[in-house]
Amino acid sequence: MTGPNIDTSSLENYIKTYVSLSEDEILALNSLVQYRKIKKNQYLLHEGGIAAMSSYVVSGCLRTYITDNKGIEHILGFPTPGWWTGNLQNFYNDKPSQLNIQAIFDTEILFFTKETKEKLFLSGAVFERYFRILTERSLIDFQARTLEILSLSAEERYWKFYNKYPDLMLKLPQKYIAGYIGVTPEFLSKMKSNGLRKP
């Protein structure tokens, strides 16, 4: 779905926290952005697929994960409202995705295809600036996540998760929390039964 019937206010407000938008730029945004609803357990992107979309989460929650050659899922993140998600290699290089992006709850997104994103950039340099800032922030988050995996204990990663996603702690299945902090569900249960000491 695209056009004036889409409520883009949350996206507009989010963009405005980084850059100023003119009325013409808001009109361009509204004319190019598309809307999609993803039901619980449905996939926005499946491993091996090519679905070049840059997606902004309006409501709900997704999980981004990969599956290793032993069939174990490793969760990279939980895009929630106000987050962008997608696969950059898939989006820019038309490569089959190595990632899976699945809705944990019913989720609504606003998204751009490769074509509509290029049109957005042509409509105003402000959008190129905004997405540059977004990419820089994503790289910072990626580095922080990598360092977290390499340098912190499982218990420390648990509390990092707790601080990052406090609202999700009571909603997510334990297997998803385990997949994010890099342990098995059984190991997480054992950690919790032994008492987790908050730092």
From TrEMBL:
Q: Which PROSITE patterns match?
A: CNMP_BINDING_3
Domain of life, per lineage: Bacteria
Which InterPro entries does the entry link to? cNMP-bd_dom, cNMP-bd_dom_sf, RmlC-like_jellyroll
Q: Which SUPFAM superfamilies match?
A: cAMP-binding domain-like (SSF51206)
Q: Give start-end ranges for the coiled-coil region(s).
A: none
According to the entry, every stretch annotated as the Cyclic nucleotide-binding domain falls at 17-121
Query: What is the protein's given name?
Result: Cyclic nucleotide-binding domain-containing protein
